[in-house]
Amino acid sequence: MITGIKGTRFRRAAAVTLTTGAVLAAGAFGAAPAGAVATPTVTAKGGYTMNSGTGTTLYTKAADTKLSTGSTTKIMTAKVVLAQTNLDLDAKVTVSSAYSNYIVDNGYLSTAHLIVGDKVSVRQLLYGLMLPSGCDAAYALADKFGSGSTRAARVKSFIGKMNTTAQSLGMTNTHFDSFDGVGHGANYSTPRDLTKLARSAMKSTTFKTIVKTVTTKQKVTTSSGGYRYYTWENTNKPLLTGYSGTIGVKTGSGPEAKYCLVFAATRNGKTIIGTVLASSSITNRTADAKKLLDYSFAR
């Protein structure tokens, strides 16, 4: 069975505006001991939060259950790129027709709308990867940073680096078989593992800058030597603009993955990082994240 986000993508809709920043009061979800914070109920099949500074677990729900991750996979894609030795973020990559064909051939995946022949920097591809969740940008990065004499070999090599990195981070219930979350039967992770990944990725200044960006306009060189602009909006905009202190991280969705979100926020010097997998809707994954952030900050 093919997993991940293959097939017609769920269309993203604007999240319902929710009351934000409120600390959950004891008893908000039923009677609780004096001074206690009531555990929230979320629609997601799995959830996990931690204090990023201490690594302390704050919330769990099926935290070690293997689930499809959709485009949250792209957090690892970015991490592998940013871990390259002597990385030149301004190095140019020429957009191949293979990248745009991949979008169409797999049922019109989420895309950065890269145009064949354009010369796009590695930094810009990372924006295209993480904001509009461009599977074409993911393909370009895997092709650029994998090893081998053919594109297929380079992609295979890059995915191998993703799995090696997962092992090094102690992501014991994770396996990647794609560079973008379009799974081929063995692309999965858990709320705990993805939170570990995000905590590690957020140590990169470049990554942290990108994932907290709401919109960006990037100037690239065309095949004729001219220029054009790409304008990208973050798929995580509902949380970034609707919850005070949000600093990232990445959405994901698909027929099997449902609606996923890896999130992070900082308040009063305390950073919470967490994950919800298989929420029931776009609106509910944002609401789930807000509930878990409120709960975790209150603890």
Could you characterize what this model shows?
A hairpin with a 5-residue loop joins strand 5 and strand 6. The longest helix has 18 residues. The protein contains nine helices and nine strands. The protein is an alpha+beta fold and 299 residues long. The protein is globular and about 65 Å long. It starts with 45 loop residues before the first strand and ends with a helix. Helix 1 packs parallel to helix 4 and helix 1 crosses helix 5.
Quick gist of this model?
The chain is α+β, with helices and mostly antiparallel strands and 299 residues long.
- Strand order across the biggest sheet? 2-1-9-8-7
Please provide the count of β strands: 9
> Outline, from the CA principal axes?
globular
Helix tally equals 9
What does the radius of gyration come to? 19 Å
Question: SSE layout and pairings?
Answer:
Elements: E1 46-51, E2 57-61, H1 74-82, E3 92-94, H2 97-105, E4 119-121, H3 122-130, H4 135-145, H5 151-168, H6 191-201, H7 205-211, E5 215-221, E6 227-233, H8 237-242, E7 246-254, E8 258-267, E9 270-279, H9 282-298
Antiparallel strand pairs: 1-2, 1-9, 3-4, 5-6, 7-8, 8-9
